[in-house]
Write a structure and sequence with these properties.
70 residues, alpha+beta, two-stranded antiparallel sheet, 2 strands, 54% helix
C-alpha cells in the first residue's frame, strides 16, 4: 500500500478516472485507476517505479480485453 498526497504526471481528473475504493479494517480506502497509476509511474521515473511498468501494462491490457468481452 502506498499513500500519496501528490501524484506526478496526472491531474485530479485523471486520478479519479477508473478510480475505486476498497474496505480495510472498517475504513474505505480510495485508489487511482490502473491507467493513472501507469502514467504516474512513468512520470516518477524512479527505478522502482519503472520496474513495475511491464506488469501494470499487462494488467491494463488484460482488463481492457475483459471489458470488451462483457
Amino acid at each position: 500500500i502506498e499513500v500519496l498526497t501528490k501524484v506526478a504526471g496526472i491531474d485530479f481528473d485523471q486520478a479519479i478516472d477508473g478510480a475505486g475504493t476498497f474496505h480495510l479494517a472498517g475504513r474505505t480506502i480510495p485508489f487511482i485507476g490502473r491507467g493513472a497509476l501507469l502514467k504516474n509511474k512513468r512520470a516518477a521515473g524512479r527505478p522502482k517505479d519503472l520496474a513495475v511498468i511491464p506488469t501494470l501494462e499487462a494488467t491494463l491490457l488484460m482488463q481492457r480485453e475483459l471489458d470488451q468481452q462483457s
